[in-house]
Design goal:
Blueprint: E1 6-9, E2 17-23, E3 26-29, E4 46-55, E5 61-67, E6 74-83, E7 95-102, E8 106-107, E9 110-111, E10 124-127, E11 138-142, E12 146-147, E13 150-159, H1 166-170, E14 186-188, E15 192-198, E16 206-215
Antiparallel strand pairs: 1-2, 2-3, 4-10, 4-16, 5-11, 5-15, 6-14, 6-16, 7-13, 7-15, 8-12, 9-11
Length: about 220
């Protein structure tokens, strides 16, 4: 991406300069947009949390993400449910998955590993920009068996697990999170987290998840 190649002086106050860039022999002022939380878009360290495929099951917790780091805020940006279409499934029901805000860290299951891991079978954090540092108090678990105490129900989503159905392909590119670009994001302050859990109706198939969040 090209960087601004010039600037103009602004005299009010301290006399700061404003970045400009040349397009077709004319200088245009460079504009940087901010989110509703006041942060410049793209400036916060961004992380992915990938959860490996797991067989579906009634009331199964697929993963939890928890923020136990003091003075740190996580903001959930995107959430994807990925149907494992390399597993043959026919004549099945779709599944309902509920996203919940939690007030306690999950227990049991398998803890997510750090960004140095290249495993394709373990839950793992990975940075959008290599070199980002994830605070030690930010943790996640795949298929936790306890903890992850419910605080609030955020929203339901539905995934169709039959690999021959076109919707099972489309969902992996569909953000389950209600995307409100001009509103506040889902915030996880210190002592809060979220989990994704299946509804009480059983089915068959295998699903994975990818959560995208920023740290401030």
């Amino acid at each position: 991406m090209a960087l601004p190649n010039d600037s103009i002086d602004v005299t009010p106050g301290t006399g700061a300069t404003v970045a400009t860039h040349t397009v077709s022999s004319k200088e245009y002022q460079v504009v940087m947009t901010s989110d509703a939380d006041g942060q410049i878009r793209g400036s916060l360290p961004a992380w992915g949390l990938v959860i490996p495929p797991a067989a579906v099951g009634a009331s199964k917790i697929y993963f939890d993400l928890f923020n136990n780091q003091a003075s740190t805020i996580l903001r959930l940006r995107k959430l994807f449910g990925i149907v494992a279409t390399d597993v043959a499934v026919t004549g099945t029901l779709g599944i309902r998955v509920d996203t919940m805000r939690t007030s306690a860290v999950g227990t049991g299951g398998t803890a997510a590993v750090g960004p140095a891991s290249a495993s394709k079978t373990a839950a793992a954090f990975w940075p959008f920009t290599p070199g980002n540092t994830l605070p030690a108090g930010v943790t996640a678990r795949a298929v936790p068996t306890g903890g992850a105490t419910d605080e609030a129900w955020l929203f339901p989503s539905y995934l169709f697990t039959e690999e021959t159905n076109v919707s099972s392909q489309v969902t992996q590119f569909f953000n389950l999170l209600p995307e409100l670009t001009t509103e506040q994001s889902i915030e996880l302050p210190t002592g809060k987290g979220l989990k994704v859990v299946q509804g009480t109706v059983a089915s068959v198939g295998t699903v994975a998840f990818l959560a995208v969040f920023t740290v401030e």
